[in-house]
Amino acid sequence: MESAALPMAWTDEELVARSVQGDTESFNELVLRWERSIYALAYRTLGREEDARDICQETFLRAFRGLSAFKGQAKFSSWLYRIALNLCRDAMRRERRTPLVAVPEGIDPTELAARQPSPAPSVEDLVARAELSRHVASAMRRLPEDQRTAILLKEYHGLTFQEIADIMGCPLSTAKTRLYQGLSVLRREFTSGERRSAEVAPFRRLEKQP
Amino acid sequence: MTRDEFCNDKALLVSYLYSGCDDGERRAVEAHLAECGACAAEIAGLRAVRGSLSEWETPERLLGIRVAAQERGGPIAGSSQERAPVASRWRWTPPWWLQTAAAVLFFAAAAGLAQVEVRYGADGLVVRTGWGRTAPTTQSAGTPAQAPWRQDLAALEQELRRELSSATRPTAVVATRAPQANELNLLSRVRDLIEQSEQKQQRELAIRLVDVVRDADIQRRADQMRVQQTVGQLEGQTDVAVRQNRELLNYLVRVSQQR
């Protein structure tokens, strides 16, 4: 099988077809296209880099093994997302059963600042962004799984409502409702946090005077 | 569609929020938003949430996963960069029982080096010193003839006698015998004395051991309390820092909005 000069223009479906016939290079092209997305999804779902890496690896391994079962009834990416989400769910269940306390991975602002050699963003800016990022992450983690998954797939992966419904195995209207409910919970949480901090803000600014 | 129907149709609202409406729906929603303050506020709030969500970054990482075909059988999937995730995942603190076991092991090893034998059996805690055990064997290995060690032995006897007589509870039964006996007698007397001395030392060691354990326990409790206090203080400080960061952020957001 000739696999030289893999054109980037090939569709996922064409690459899948070639992979099914045994062309591993075509499959590796699919991996290259989707591993960042799958990793990001797993990271945002589980909150730990190591777990996300494991899930990502396992997702592609399962996809490769199950290629012959993939009939093309959905998009290849949707199929991948579903495999990854199922693995994430298993991992979360395992974690709940294990008495080990998983320390949530916060973002260390100093580390973040150290990683950025360019002086463009100020440390205050980085700290603020990291803080917001952490805040969003922890609020998302508190959401029910269905609502969180709907938000993740829409907000960070740009899937259509129908694709989300297909991946989650629910009617279209349910997918939209879950998304709405999740966003509403976040809205309440973010605004209440803002109100709390606005009350102490003037004192904060006074403290900042040198 | 009536006004109430619009307000309650959250699916439509979500579609509009993500630009998933067709033109007709979009115009209808916009007309409704123009006259319904509650829905307009809701859309604005949800847009703000989307803005915050866009700040949630993930570590940018290319794993380099590749599948290699095997001659026969299944695929080999692996990351070309690192195969260590499983190992690095199990950074763990040893459980309390393992830490205790390690401490006991350490103590036992130290006791072994110091020729101290600590045994816990049916007769309770038994502490033996190595000195008492080795002494009789070296003595009995000698010849019964005149030998320089006789003087040493006699000196040892005297010393032990003095030591035992100073003890609070003298148990020197053998010491009443006449000192002019043959060598075997002397040897057995010394052995007895050594035995008694050993028992005395055992008692003392046991008492010291109990003291040490008690002291260690008291110290441990004090440390524990101190650690708990420190952790409490740290938690307080961290909360303050987090709050300050949030305030700073809100301040920046407000400033950027004003511009």
Percent helix of chain B: 55-70%
CATH level 3 topology of one domain in chain A: Rna Polymerase Sigma Factor, Chain: A
- The tally of structural domains of chain B comes to 2
β-strand amount of chain A: under 5%
Q: What can be said about the biggest beta sheet of chain B? A: 2 strands, antiparallel
Structural class of chain A: mainly alpha
Number of helices of chain A: 9
* Helical run tally of chain B: 9
H and E order of chain B:
HHHHEEHHEEHHH
Outline of chain B: rod-shaped
Description:
The complex is a heterodimer of chains A (210) and B (259). Chain A is an all-alpha fold. Chain A has a domain at 1-105: RNA polymerase sigma factor, region 2, helix turn helix motif (Rna Polymerase Sigma Factor, Chain: A, Orthogonal Bundle). Chain A contains 9 helices and no strands. The longest helix of chain A has 37 residues, at 172-208. Mean pLDDT of chain A is 82; it is low at 99-104 and 201-210. Chain B is built from 9 helices and 4 strands; from the N terminus they run H-H-H-H-E-E-H-H-E-E-H-H-H. In chain B, helix 3 packs across helix 4, helix 7 runs antiparallel to helix 9 (183-258) and helix 8 (149-165) crosses helix 9. In chain B, the strands form 2 sheets. A two-stranded antiparallel sheet of chain B has the order 1-2. Chain B has a two-stranded antiparallel ribbon with strand order 3-4. Chain B has 2 domains: 3-54; 96-226, no CATH class. Mean pLDDT of chain B is 73; it is low at 80-93, 131-144 and 168-179. With 259 residues, chain B is mostly helical. In chain B, a hairpin with a 7-residue loop joins strand 1 (65-68) and strand 2. Chains A and B meet through helix 2, helix 3, helix 6, helix 7 and helix 9 of A and helix 2, helix 4, strand 1, strand 2 and helix 5 of B.
Task: Give the arrangement of secondary structure elements.
The complex is a heterodimer of chains A (210) and B (259).
Chain A (H helix, E strand, L loop, with lengths): L11 H9 L3 H23 L2 H17 L10 H22 L11 H7 L7 H20 L2 H12 L4 H8 L3 H37 L2
Helix pairs in contact in A: 1-2, 2-3, 2-4, 3-4, 4-8, 5-6, 7-9, 8-9
Chain B lengths: L2 H6 L1 H8 L5 H13 L1 H17 L11 E4 L7 E4 L5 H5 L6 H18 L2 E6 L2 E6 H11 L8 H17 L17 H76 L1
Antiparallel strand pairs in B: 1-2, 3-4
Helix pairs in contact in B: 3-4, 7-9, 8-9
